[in-house]
Specification:
alpha/beta; 20 helices; 7-stranded parallel beta sheet
Length: about 475
């Protein structure tokens, strides 16, 4: 490696899914803004989806590049071009999960060749690449883990694992308190991620979880997309009680200060904002469930009924199953006509950060993916929580029980893509609770205060800004 005065070079290696790639891109931009040379390592198809964003960053003076790995689709029996996990979510009729993760493990040799060739000063690799710690160690390169989780979720999951709670509850629906975790957090076994349940009938899941944890413990540390003031008890618990080295550098979405970055597709963003400009302040409810959730036709109809019954103007981002060919299959008859002027339905991509930051938006119905949750917090919005998969039930508890800036629709069971079927009256009730009545006043105040704290954390002198500087300085000293 070079001398102390030379420019640092960081590799960023995100898992091939939009929910992982987007925050990793934003992280890379943050490091580049500190003068670090950054390189995104990804596959051919995924490189195409981020190339325009990288070119924009280069024009702004950031030193950021892409290196491409070949994704071994043919070797594992995946369809050609199946290089992003969203492809699998969009094709639920074919179970390709195992093949996709097998293909991901086969990237190790190519990554090691790149590490040997470029010898970066640090590798930031996704949790789904546990082998990356050993790969980096071969070349004396520190590896940082990126989970894409909150401190709260990281702590809750580790407490569940350490205390084997599934062995101490009598049924799947019996509530239990997560031991040692601050806040008296209650969950049921059905709400735990499938990989956390230590189900003896699925030893492969237990094996995967063990590999993740061992890799994390052997790594240089963990990068967390959060800010200290949001979850101080859990940030402290993670470092002091669980003994992890961690740096909080979020919310990374705030790295996209320019409107042209937040709304990558300018025409769609303009139309959406123009519609919001015509609405009263704090009057609109925004509904979006990310890229992983794929609701049934029946569930979409229940959402539509609830939105209409609530009486509030709304923006609804809809991800439809492939077999649904027309709006009539998932919208009640006459729905769009009856709600003309007070509804905006977006089919596909939406400029979420811009929408959430708009003053007309008051509430956010969310699946509690951490990216979306943190974007909602950063924008100072109240939330209706509807967790489906991954660590989303933990994030729901943070929003509803700890931060007290949201209410739950009452989801009882963890699922892969669909989750529980929720009735329209429960959805309507959740919307009304975050948009109307006495309960809203304090919720709004807390949410707006957190939004202000998020912005301050990301600014020069803020907690996340300072933690990023500290991490960069530490890696410099290791050179």
């Amino acid at each position: 490696m070079g001398s102390l005065g030379q420019q640092l070079h960081f590799f960023f290696f995100p898992f091939m899914a939009h929910g992982h790639m987007i925050p990793t891109m934003e992280m890379a931009k943050l490091f580049a803004s500190r003068g670090v040379k950054t390189t995104i390592v990804t596959t051919t198809v995924n490189a195409r989806s981020i190339s325009k964003s990288i070119q924009t960053c280069k024009h702004l003076g950031f030193e950021i590049d892409i290196r491409i790995l070949r994704f071994p689709t043919a070797e594992v029996g995946l369809p050609e071009g199946c290089e992003n996990f969203d492809f699998i979510v969009s094709n639920p009729e074919v179970d390709l999960h195992d093949k996709f993760f097998l293909a991901a493990t086969m990237l190790q040799d190519q990554l090691e060749m790149l590490l040997f060739e470029c010898h970066p000063d640090c590798l930031v690799a996704d949790m789904f690449f546990p082998w990356a710690t050993d790969a980096a160690a071969k070349f004396g390169i520190p590896r940082l883990v990126f989970h894409g989780f909150s401190f709260f979720a990281l702590c809750a999951e580790e407490c569940v694992r350490l205390y084997e709670l599934d062995k101490n509850v009598s049924s799947d629906v019996e509530p239990f308190v997560i031991p040692n975790l601050p806040g008296e957090i209650r969950l049921t076994r059905k709400q735990l991620p499938e990989y956390s349940r230590q189900d003896q009938s699925k030893p492969e899941l237990t094996k995967v979880l063990k590999a993740w944890k061992e890799s994390e413990l052997k790594s240089f540390g963990v990068i967390v997309n959060s800010f200290y003031e949001l979850e101080p008890d859990y940030a402290d618990f993670y470092t002091n009680e669980l003994g992890r080295k961690a740096w909080h550098i979020g919310p990374v979405s705030l790295s996209n200060r320019a409107v042209e970055h937040k709304g990558k597709r300018e025409k769609e963003a303009h139309e959406c904002l123009k519609w919001l400009d015509s609405m009263k302040s704090d009057s609109v409810i925004y509904i979006c469930f990310g890229t992983m959730t794929n609701f049934t036709t029946t569930q979409l109809k229940e959402i539509a009924v609830a939105l209409e019954a609530s009486g509030h103007p709304f923006i609804w981002v809809v991800r439809r199953e492939k077999e649904i060919e027309s709006d009539e299959e998932w919208l009640p008859r006459g729905f769009e006509e009856r709600n003309e002027g007070k509804r905006l339905i977006i089919r596909g991509w939406a400029p979420q950060v811009l929408i959430l930051e708009h003053k007309a938006v008051g509430g956010f119905v969310t699946h509690c993916g951490w990216n979306s949750t943190l974007e909602g917090i950063s924008a100072g919005k109240r939330m209706v929580t509807w967790p489906v998969t991954s660590e989303q039930f933990y994030n729901e508890k943070l929003v509803t029980d700890v931060l007290k800036i949201g209410v739950s629709v009452g989801v009882k069971e963890w699922g892969k893509f669909h989750g529980d079927e929720i009735k329209s009256e429960d959805i309507e009730n959740g919307i009304r609770r975050v948009m109307e009545g006495e309960e809203v006043v304090e919720m709004r105040s807390r949410a707006r205060k957190l939004g202000k704290m998020a912005r301050e954390a990301a600014e020069n002198g803020g907690s996340s800004y300072s933690d990023l500087d500290a991490l960069v300085d530490l890696i410099k000293r290791k050179k």
